[in-house]
């Protein structure tokens, strides 16, 4: 049987990226951590790390065992809280990751109600792209992560993580006030093939959703600017410098531009919340209910009034 203490050593190496980092976290000497790691490799019968003179990294077997070690750590933590009667909803900490446009209204709406009900739960918020924050969720540094993926660019959820769907969010076309596209009920991207575009950098690769959708409609967009900040994108469109695709969550409260619906059915984002099912934090479980309520409230008001 594998030792839970040695599994924790492997987990800390996974979290910190080094034996020295694990030693600092666990208040052990590096040699003690190395010894425990060697014993774990002996117990498991497989190599868990690859070593060279400058670095150390987990093998595939080591990474998979570290993910299982996180599940064991979650179960042990839950057991300790049950035994000590510490699993209280009026205290503790909740660590939430989220992408930027979820922070405009969805997350504040959920958090304002959650915080009013549980004022003594400390909130620790981290903003970033889902692919940037998923490793933090995997290794237990986050309790929940508000995520999205595109119908044209889906991603695979990591092992040990589940994603609960909240709603589908349409991408909308944003054009300067008075643009001829604003007179149509639905617009094809190809109708704006000659326009300059403001688009994003893409997520894990350099091709944006605009460029993927444009390829399907048979043209290559002329990119004038790339920005992952929707305030910048909308400001440039407002100034007449281009047109853009912007998801509905990024358009709440926006003025001075026209917003058009698209005739491309695949142009939407799936909004969800990722979590580790084994996470024992009771605040995380309660927060999900508030997030679902906020999502339901927003679902029918995502497309702004066309101006």
From TrEMBL:
Pfam families: HTH_1 (PF00126), LysR_substrate (PF03466). GO terms for molecular function: DNA binding; DNA-binding transcription factor activity. It comes from the Bacteria. Residues 2-59 form the HTH lysR-type domain. Keywords: DNA-binding, Transcription, Transcription regulation. One of its GO terms (cellular component) is protein-DNA complex. Belongs to the LysR transcriptional regulatory family. This is ModE molybdate transport repressor domain-containing protein. It comes from Nonomuraea wenchangensis.
């Amino acid at each position: 049987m594998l030792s839970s203490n040695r599994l924790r050593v492997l987990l800390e190496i996974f979290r910190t990226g080094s034996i020295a980092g694990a030693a600092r976290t666990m208040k052990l000497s590096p040699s003690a951590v190395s010894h425990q790691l060697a014993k774990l490799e002996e117990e498991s019968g497989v190599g868990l790390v690859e070593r060279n003179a400058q670095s150390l990294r987990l093998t595939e077997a080591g990474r998979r065992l570290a993910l299982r070690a996180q599940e064991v750590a979650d179960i042990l933590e839950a057991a300790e809280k049950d035994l000590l009667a510490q699993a209280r909803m009026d205290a503790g900490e909740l660590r939430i990751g989220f992408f930027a446009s979820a922070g405009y209204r969805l997350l504040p709406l959920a958090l304002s109600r959650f915080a009013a009900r549980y004022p003594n739960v400390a909130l620790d918020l981290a903003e970033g792209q889902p692919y940037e924050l998923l490793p933090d969720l995997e290794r237990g540094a986050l309790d929940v992560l508000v995520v999205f993926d595109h119908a044209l660019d889906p991603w695979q959820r990591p092992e040990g993580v589940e994603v609960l769907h909240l709603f589908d969010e349409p991408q909308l076309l944003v054009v300067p006030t008075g643009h001829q596209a604003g007179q149509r009920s639905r617009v094809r991207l190809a109708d704006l093939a000659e326009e300059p575009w403001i688009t994003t950098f893409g997520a894990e690769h350099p091709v944006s959703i605009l460029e993927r959708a444009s390829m399907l409609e048979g043209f290559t967009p002329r990119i004038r600017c790339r920005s992952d900040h929707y305030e910048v994108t909308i400001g440039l469109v407002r100034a007449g410098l281009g047109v853009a695709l912007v998801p509905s969550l990024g358009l709440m409260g926006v003025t001075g531009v026209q917003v058009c619906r698209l005739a491309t059915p695949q142009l939407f984002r799936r909004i969800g919340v990722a979590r580790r099912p084994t996470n024992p934090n009771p605040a995380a479980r309660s927060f999900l209910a508030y997030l679902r309520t906020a999502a339901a409230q927003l679902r029918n008001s995502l497309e702004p009034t066309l101006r």
